[in-house]
TrEMBL record:
This is Phosphotransferase. It catalyses: D-glucose + ATP = D-glucose 6-phosphate + ADP + H(+); D-mannose + ATP = D-mannose 6-phosphate + ADP + H(+); a D-hexose + ATP = a D-hexose 6-phosphate + ADP + H(+); D-fructose + ATP = D-fructose 6-phosphate + ADP + H(+). Residues 1-21 have a biased composition (Polar residues). One of its GO terms (biological process) is glycolytic process. GO terms for cellular component: cytosol; mitochondrion. It comes from Darwinula stevensoni.
């Protein structure tokens, strides 16, 4: 399927009729009882970012980026600013057959892609569900599972070709020592397999392939989904310079001038290289504690990886619904919602998904209550008209905070790169499904990066297709005897 391009750039989101109904930068809220209204507003107030907080977050982001790129930083940055060792994006000459793996969520994919002169000719994909016992079990078992899937995929396709070249999309924070060496820094999202942190994911994959697969496979590149997304974006639009993931997790990568990467000591001849920011971990060192609410603290306490991935927990798809649920429960307990009556389901951690937030936001935009009422029905809750307004308000406030936080980072990147035009390639279910995140973000970025021309490009399957494209780029680089750049970083 073709990627879909957004309308962004110069069109003012304020011209959008839906946005006129739900004005930008504010979440209209009015219920029949002004005292109750003030009490609800008071509870949600810490989630509304003032301009002062927004400025502070931006300044801290800038400082942390600099620290993350520094050679001898005086203190540790919460931004990894990882060198991906990817010095080039697709240039239209890539040809051949490539295998790609995509691991980052509960669905693992194996992809076989054929390219001819930079154009995708054919693509075969198979999905495999990664069971919980594999996501949380020993590392070796996870990589054996991946190798078994490759074997199954190739057997089902009756693949009899020669040695295959593979790009491995491994969407976790890695310390990359070369394009095909990725040391896992820590697990995120729903994975926590002992025995992998500190090890090279490519080596573990290679070993498993030798143990279980029986096919000759050369793993030439390891990347995370943001890198796959920037590459897939560049395949469609050469002005792509940022890759953004806004799905279960969140992160971005961008093209950085090599001269500004102080910590890169090894040999390199590229002008620019893709840097994986890993902004999901922004604030893990406490630099964002000033904006943390009680709800965020609770999200962290209930999470699989307590104390890490602070920024991601403020807005990513894995958490947005849960933030809404915690607020709703608090409002019920304060007798401000559902006449103080809750259900077991609403009290259950994880029961309120981010998709519900998207659906309720859709209602707000369409001046409807249909979706919201359906959801409340599923939760067995009785409600009044005011309850519906409160729920919509909660979803609007946390969506606005999400848009603010992602936009702060993107606006800063646009200013830092200072390119005449920049396309931001985006992938991820939250960005795709939420009805107004994109419009909100366009308006905020335009305001915070004045004069910078940008547009969003929705790319489907950046991680899978991007991994295959990177395998092709790596092969091209090797063929042109441009040694894959290595060095201490
Ligand atoms: C991972 C990143 C990834 C992001 C989006 C985060 O949890 O650490 O590497 O890019 O999720 O999938």
């Amino acid at each position: 399927m073709n990627p879909t391009e957004s309308t962004a750039k110069s069109t003012s989101p304020l011209e959008d009729t839906n946005q006129q109904r739900l004005p930008m930068g504010s979440c209209p809220f009015a219920i029949s009882d002004p005292v109750q209204q003030a009490q609800v507003e008071e509870i949600l107030k810490p989630l509304i970012l003032t301009q002062d907080v927004i400025d502070r977050v931006r300044d801290v982001f800038e400082d942390e980026m600099k620290l993350g790129l520094a050679k001898n930083p005086p203190k540790l940055s919460s931004l990894q600013m990882e060198n991906t060792f990817l010095p080039e994006l697709p240039n239209g000459t890539e040809s051949g057959e490539y295998l790609a793996l995509d691991l980052g969520g509960t669905n693992f994919r194996v992809i076989l892609m054929e390219l001819k002169e930079g154009t995708i000719q054919r693509e075969e994909v198979k999905y495999y569900k990664v069971p919980e016992e594999v996501r949380l079990g020993p590392g070796e078992q996870l990589f054996d599972f991946l190798a078994d899937c490759i074997k199954d995929f190739l057997e089902k396709k009756h693949y009899t070709g020669e040695k295959l070249t593979l790009g491995f999309c491994f969407s976790f924070p890695m310390h990359q020592k070369a394009l095909n060496v990725g040391i896992l820094v820590h697990w995120t999202k729903s994975f926590n397999c002992p025995g992998v942190v500190g090890k090279d994911a490519v080596k573990m994959l290679n070993d498993a392939i030798h143990r279980r697969c029986g096919h000759a496979i050369d793993v030439v590149a390891v990347l995370n989904d943001t890198t796959g997304t920037i590459v897939k974006g560049a395949y469609v639009d050469h002005e792509t310079a940022i890759g953004l993931i806004l799905g279960t997790g969140s992160n971005a990568c961008y093209l950085e001038r090599v001269s500004r990467i102080e910590k890169w000591e090894g040999q390199h001849d590229a002008e620019e290289v893709v840097i994986d920011i890993e902004f999901g971990a922004f604030g893990d060192n406490g630099v964002l504690d000033f904006m943390k609410t009680d709800f965020d603290r609770e999200i962290n306490r209930n999470s699989l990886l307590v104390g890490s991935f602070t920024y991601e927990k403020y807005f990513a798809g894995k958490y947005l619904g849960e933030i809404a649920r915690l607020i709703l429960v608090k409002l019920v307990d304060e007798e401000l919602l559902f006449k103080g009556k809750c259900t077991e389901k609403l009290r259950t951690v994880g029961s309120f998904t981010s998709q519900y937030v998207s659906h309720i936001e859709k209602d707000s935009m369409e001046l409807s209550t249909e979706e919201t009422e359906k959801i409340l029905g599923e939760f067995g809750l009785s409600y009044t008209q005011d309850d519906l307004k409160i729920i919509k308000y909660v979803c609007a406030v946390i969506s606005e905070r999400a848009a603010n936080l992602v936009s702060i980072c993107l606006a800063h990147l646009l200013c830092r790169m200072d390119k005449p035009h920049c396309t931001i390639a985006v992938d991820g279910s939250l960005f795709e499904e939420h009805p107004r995140l994109r419009t909100l973000m366009e308006a905020k970025i335009s305001a915070w990066a004045p004069g910078k021309q940008f547009k969003f490009l929705m790319v489907e399957d950046g991680s899978g297709k991007g991994a295959a494209l990177i395998a092709a780029i790596a092969t091209r680089l090797r063929a042109h005897s441009k040694a894959i750049i290595s060095g201490e970083c």
